[in-house]
TrEMBL record:
Protein name: Signal transducer and activator of transcription
Family: Belongs to the transcription factor STAT family.
Localization in the cell: Cytoplasm; Nucleus
Entry coiled-coil feature ranges: none
Listed Pfam families: SH2, STAT_alpha, STAT_bind, STAT_int, STAT_linker
Cellular component per GO, a single term: nucleoplasm
One GO MF term: DNA-binding transcription factor activity, RNA polymerase II-specific
Keyword field: Acetylation, Activator, ADP-ribosylation, Coiled coil, Cytoplasm, DNA-binding, Isopeptide bond, Methylation, Nucleus, Phosphoprotein, SH2 domain, Transcription, Transcription regulation, Ubl conjugation
Chief subcellular location: cytoplasm
Top-rank lineage group of the source organism: Eukaryota
Amino acid sequence: MSQWSQVQQLEIKFLEQVDQFYDDNFPMEIRHLLAQWIEGQDWEAAANNEAMAMILLQNLIIQVDEQLDRVSQEKNLLLIHNLKRIRKLLQGKYHGNPMHIAVIISNCLREERRILAAASMPVQGPLEKSLQNSMVSERQRNVEHKVSAIKNSAQMTDQDVKYLEDLQEEFDFRYKTIQSLEQNDKNSALIKQEMLVLQAMLNTLDYKRKEVLSKIGRVIHEIDMLMSNMLTEELLDWKRRQQIACIGGPLHGGLDQLQNCFTLLAESLFQVRRQLEKLDELLTRLTYDGDPIPVQRPQLLEKVNLLLYNLFRNSFVVERQPCMPTHPQRPMVLKTLIQFTVKLRLLIKLPELNYQIRVKATIDKNVSTVSNRRFVLCGTHVKAMNMDESANGSLSVEFRHLQPKEMKTSAGSKGNEGPHMVTEELHSISFETQVCLYGLTINLETSSLPVVMISNVSQLPNAWASIIWYNLSTNDPQNLSFFNNPPAAALSQLLEVLSWQFSSYVGRGLNSEQLNMLAEKLTGPQVSYNDYQLSWAKFCKEHLPGKSFTFWVWLEAILDLIKKHILPLWIDGYVMGFVSKEKERILLKDKTPGTFLLRFSESNLGGITFTWVDQLENGDVTFHSVEPYNKGRLSALPFADILRDYKVIMADNVPENPLKYLYPDIPKDKAFGKHYSCQPNEVSKPSDGGVKGYVPSVFIPVSKILNDSIEPHSPSDLLPMSPSVYAVLREHLSPTAIETAVS
């Protein structure tokens, strides 16, 4: 079943998450129509290879053309229209930057896998539950409702101002008419009557002026209260969701809704500002004793300007945090002299601002950081915000060619810090601009979340651990001295984040049993981790008991192993992976002989092994574990083929495959058959021919189990025999001779 078919079968709450990340950048129609083809391409590799990305883009357009031909024959007018629009978008938007579409599609596919993994989990973790709090959703609806009500109130006040203007014009006309009469005429009874009418009109004007100012004051107060409370909370919640999404959590949405709220409030404030300007104009034409306009208008205008300043300052956000295109799952880790991208948005979307706001990027603007290292940004670091580059028309700017470069400092200050010192240093990318609009000049500034600078990719795992710990532990966006005294983290939340590393990076998260094993590895046995607080040192700096590596280095090596060598098996759920030796024996002891399971090595970095259960002649149960396979050996032979072709030489000297059933009782070929190479590996005979007299050989994993032991004395007892040696032995020696040779 294709990944897209699995997505379509999800519950509605998960489908809503999928809907959030499909837009005009990568329309869902294309994802649906070309599901099999899209999933068959390596978009992640293309995201880092421009030539490959251009070929995939051209092929994508060809696929769209084929679909267009098909629907044209079916005369599906709506689909024809959409496909033509999408084809034009693909050609126009990505022809000059094909890697951008590769990044987008790669991210969408990865996010689909994360959602599928989350849907398969029996319960949500504490972090995800907090992000999906029903009270938060209710507040979002309340904010949108209040913003709409404020907009309506401002528009209604416009009508009141217009009525006031008309009333004053009528008063002016009548007043000037009386003023133009001769003195004798002014004493007539008719004129006296007209003066009474004018006085009544002036009283009405005074009342309406006070009423309009009161309504304007109420609108300003409602905006002030909304900005101070619910809107500020909404923005902070969005920023927190962004933090969590950056470390593998659920995709954060809601920025378009916030943009709508910010824009409507800005429009309302500018509308109120125009109303106050109109009142000032009316004041110059008519004033009187007790006139409320000269008393109240300056205060109201000052409040409006202050609200606009605050609204604009809060609206300048980092929409997408700094990230190297080569490592899309590791944002905020930047390597010197390697390009990274970052995107900013102004949530106040006004046409007057298009291409009028130039944003400047700097690094470590406040040089009072805790680091002794200093950096500058190379590349295009000043760009104009516009509404043309974003699919949804938002006012944004994306920096795509920035490179951090380390500055030379005084002798001895560079390169003397240990690996943990470098990866615990936090830096900040700052952005500044100026908005000039309707007589207002507003300076805006924002910053990325803290980033870690590395000079070698070997530092990336520990740098990513720092990013995880920071964003899990705090919602402070700029605590650059965080690692001077890093706080402990709740183990329950950390385990949830670790599961996200697997779901976002390798497409399948961890279940409760696997997480329990990780918890035990971090805390020791028989510890309730619900309220357990884990230290940063325990997670990333202290070696595991009896090992030469830390917990995080061990886990990162497993992620790398899965990604590069056993990804299909992991996604299918056939790798139990995180299970201790003690637990695996409990699971296997009552199973049919030949039942095996796959687990990650606890003593070797990036190793995977399998253990099977066997039964001796006396009925006793025995277990055998092969020496772990690492990435070097798995590069030579696919792991599924190893499971298919694996042989052991038992006491009777007859090579046989002991692996029959994947735990609990799945026939091996049923589980792994679709991942085998086309032909099983078979050892060729000399008579089959060869090259220049050599005996043809293939890789066959073979182990020898001593006949005088219930279990191997050490892991080396199950070392695979060289394929070529085994081939020669099998063809030229008797079983007895082979036994003698291997002994």
